[in-house]
Amino acid sequence: MWKKLVAPMLSASLILGMAAGCTEKSGGDEKSKGGSKKETVEITWWNYPNWDPLDGEVGKYEKEIIKAFNKKHPEIKVNLEMISFEGGPEKVNVALASKSAPDVIYDFPGRILDYGQKGYLAPLNDMIDDDFKKDVSDSIWNQTKVNDDIVMYPINTTPFMMAVNKTLFEKIGALDLLPLDRPERTWTVAEYQKALEAVKEKAPDVFPSGFFAKNTGGDQGTRAYLANLAGTSFMDPDMKKITINSEDGVKALQWVVDGVKNKLVAPGTESLTSNDNLDLFMQGKLATTIIYSSVLKKIYSTKKVADFEEAFVAFPTPDGKNPAFEPFIGGMAVFNNGDKAKVEAAKKLVDFIANDPDWTKKNLKATGGFSVRSSVSGLYDNPEMKYVESMRKYMIDAPTRAKNFIELRTVWFPELQKALMGQATAKEALDSFAKKGDEIVNKN
């Protein structure tokens, strides 16, 4: 199976290898065959903690990547700076404003496309050959482009799903209420509610489910959760109009509001973050979580303080069919800082991380994700990972590619807060969001 991955990579890797092979080293200085010194290009890589900490040290794995990269490209010096998910986005924005941006970053479409729309990124079209284009789904490619320019090189992906505390449900004798015996683990909203009611009755010290609306973090979880509960979409296919304020969407948000009152949803949702929900789940205090993925499972593994087995499940839908998952897509972008040599050097680092035969598989598994390439599968032997991989077919074209998405997400959570705090009805909140959202995604 892995041979399928290597073949499409050979063209880029071979060309880079030939370039490296045309030099000789003498006295520690790299020289061309003509005797002239080849200048060192220095680039800066900012990276969120997307990979497993090696030996518990954040950034150590990335340093190993750089060491391996320098064996093939000693002429490129890579300065690594790790940034946090909490403060990283603002740090990048400040750097862009002060014209001190890094040369390359590993991030997700929402932020990368925003940088691209503002003209900060170098196009990567020359790195994408026909085989790669055909091997990646349109729903993923749509998340990498600004107009006709590919500004994000996609590497790993996984669906954002739900997860349940399997051990808890087994302990209270309610394991049969979960859809774990079904091939795709799909279930109806009514079946989901019945499972939550069992937790409320038999495990009163555990919150049956959670929700969050304090800030933009994890907004993909709230979007997908409500859209699935409603059996509808968040936006139209062209990403020009908000659709979650439909009659069914209003009913879904009202279900959450009522769930707080009925103690099926954890209290204080308006002041909770996605991290709070994940922390509660890892502590065994939340029976289900509406935001989870194989990547998040990897990232949060060190925070799991309760001894329990979790299981991935689909979002519940009215008829128990066709769930829709927003995709996590991890990829790299190159900032155009006005230096062509740095842009080309950064592209070589991206190519190495994504396509090097010795490192690609390791890099994918270190994220807990899957390859964006359809031809690459079977990276994991774990049954849970095999299940998650099989559910990639339900990944949708997410709102993250909507124009001005970064601004759009900032008007989502305040409206949720209003509904959760009783300051607006579910309909008023979603209609208000739709009005603001439509204006945002359609403005120049």
Please give a handful of descriptors for the protein shown:
single chain, 444 residues, alpha+beta, D-Maltodextrin-Binding Protein, domain 2, 2 domains, six-stranded mixed β-sheet, three-stranded antiparallel β-sheet, 18 helices, 13 strands, 42% helix, globular, disordered N terminus
Structural overview:
By secondary structure, the chain is α+β, with helices and mostly antiparallel strands. The chain folds into two domains: 3-18 and 40-158 and 327-394, Periplasmic binding protein-like II (D-Maltodextrin-Binding Protein, domain 2, 3-Layer(aba) Sandwich); 161-324 and 411-442, D-Maltodextrin-Binding Protein, domain 2. 42% of the residues lie in helices and 14% in strands. It has 18 helices and 13 strands. The strands form four sheets. The chain has a six-stranded mixed beta sheet, sandwiched between helices. The protein has a three-stranded antiparallel beta sheet with strand order 10-9-11. A two-stranded antiparallel sheet has the order 1-2. A hairpin with a 2-residue loop joins strand 6 (145-146) and strand 7 (149-150). Helix 9 (219-230) crosses helix 10. The protein is globular and about 70 Å long. The model is unreliable at 1-36 (pLDDT under 50).
CATH class of the largest domain: Alpha Beta
> How much strand?
5-15%
Low-confidence residue ranges? 1-36
Rg over CA atoms = 23 Å
Quaternary structure: single chain
Quote the average pLDDT.
Answer: 91
Structural class: alpha+beta
In short:
The chain has helices at residues 3-21, 60-72, 88-97, 109-117, 130-135, 138-141, 166-171, 189-202, 219-230, 247-261, 274-282, 294-299, 340-355, 360-367, 383-390, 405-410, 412-420, 426-442, and strands at residues 23-26, 29-32, 41-47, 76-82, 104-107, 145-146, 149-150, 153-159, 161-165, 288-292, 310-313, 327-334, 370-371. With 444 residues, the protein is an alpha+beta fold.
